[in-house]
Amino acid sequence: MGVINETDEQLLQNAFKEYPALKTEFEQLQQEYAIWSSEPAIQQLDSEADFALIEDKLKSRKLRKRNGLALSMLLVAASITAFVIFIYPLFTNHPDKIKSGQDVAINNTTLQLQLSNGEIVDLSAPQDSITVNGGTQLKNRNNSLTYSTKDKTNTTEQVNKLWVPPGMDYHITLSDGTLIFLNSATSLRFPFHFTGNTREVFVDGEAYLQVAKDQNRPFILHTPNGAVQVLGTSFNVNTYDPGLIKVSLVEGAVSFATANKQTILKPGQAITYLENKGTMLTALNENDLLWIKGRYKLDNTSMSEITKVLPRWYGVKVVIDNPATARKKFTGTILKAEPIQEFLDAIKLTTGAESYYKDGVLHIR
C-alpha cells in the first residue's frame, strides 16, 4: 500500500469526516490489503519492512477479530521469545548501584556519555575507536554505540550515563547482547560489564528494548516510577510524564504487581501505572512504537499535548499564546527527519493555528 505525505493525510482525514461512505470504502480496501499481506510469499521481506508489517498486523487485529490473537502476532512470533515481567509499585526502592540522577544536564544538546569517573565522552561525531578508563573500547558508528571491555573480573559495577538530546535517537548494544533504542531527551544508566546475579539499568525517558535471554540473570529495568524485570524479550517503556510508567507488549506474559493487586497481561496489551491512581489496562497501541521509525502519530490530540512532544523532538521551547488554541485537536504525524516548519504548516492548514518565533521560543496562537 502506498505512502502519502502528511499534508495529503490531513486532507484524507477531512474527507472522511465530510463523506462517511468514502471512509467505509477505504476501510474495505485496508481489509483486503491486510489479508493479502498475510500471504507467506509477501512476508518474505527485509527487516526494514518487517516493522511496518507488525504495524499492519496490529491493525488487522481490529479488522479481523474472529481470527484472534494468533494471526495478528504471526510476523513477530519468530523473533520475540516468551517472557515474564514483574513491575514493582511506585514506592519500590531502587538499588544504590543504579539510581536516577541529573549529572548530564537535561537541556544539554550534545549526544554524550558520562563515565563512572565523571569524564564526559562526546559522541556527536562518529568514531571507530575510543579508549576510556579500564581499557574499554567504544565504537560510535551509524547512530549506534557498541563497546568491548577487557577487564571482566571487577566485581563492582561502575555505572555510566548515556544522554540522547532532543531531536535525536540512538541505540546501544550492552555487554550481554541486549539492544536498547533510546528516544529523544532520554538517559540510560548502565555498567560496561554486569556483575552478580542480575543485569540492571536505569531509563528516564522512552526506550525500546530487545533483551538478550539469560535464565540465570534476570534483566531489571529501573525507571523513576518503578521497575520492570525481564527474562528475555522485546518491549517499550515510556516514563516521560512524571508519576507515570507505561509498558507496551507485543507478545509474552506480564505480571503487574502493586501493594494489593496483581494484573496478568495478554499479548497485544499495555499497562499504565499512574501515581495515586493505580493501574489501567488497555489494548496495545501500535502508534506507541512508531518513534523507532522517526514518526510520532497524533490522533485527535490537543495542542497542549503536542507542545510536550515538540521540545523533545526538535529541541525548541514551545508556548501557546491563546488558551483556546491549546484546546484545538490535531490528527497527523510528526516526522523527525523533516523540518519542524513542515509540521507547523500542517497544523495551520488543519486547525488555523499560526506560529512565530520570539527570542528563540516557538509561539503558537
Question: What do these coordinates show?
Answer:
The protein is an alpha+beta fold and 365 residues long. The protein has 3 domains: 6-72, no CATH class; 84-287, Jelly Rolls; 294-364, Phage tail protein beta-alpha-beta fold (3-Layer(bab) Sandwich), CATH 3.55.50. It contains 8 helices and 25 strands. It has helices at 6-18, 20-37, 40-43, 47-63, 68-72, 303-314, 323-326, 340-351, and strands at 84-87, 112-114, 120-122, 127-131, 137-141, 144-148, 159-164, 170-173, 179-182, 186-191, 199-204, 206-210, 219-223, 226-230, 234-238, 244-249, 253-257, 262-265, 269-274, 278-283, 295-302, 318-320, 329-335, 355-358, 361-364. Helix 2 crosses helix 4. Mean pLDDT is 76; it is low at 35-50 and 60-107.
Quick recap:
The chain has 365 residues and is of the alpha+beta class.
Give me the secondary-structure topology:
Blueprint (H helix, E strand, L loop, with lengths): L5 H13 L1 H18 L2 H4 L3 H17 L4 H5 L11 E4 L24 E3 L5 E3 L4 E5 L5 E5 L2 E5 L10 E6 L5 E4 L5 E4 L3 E6 L7 E6 L1 E5 L8 E5 L2 E5 L3 E5 L5 E6 L3 E5 L4 E4 L3 E6 L3 E6 L11 E8 H12 L3 E3 L2 H4 L2 E7 L4 H12 L3 E4 L2 E4 L1
Helix pairs in contact: 1-2, 1-8, 2-4
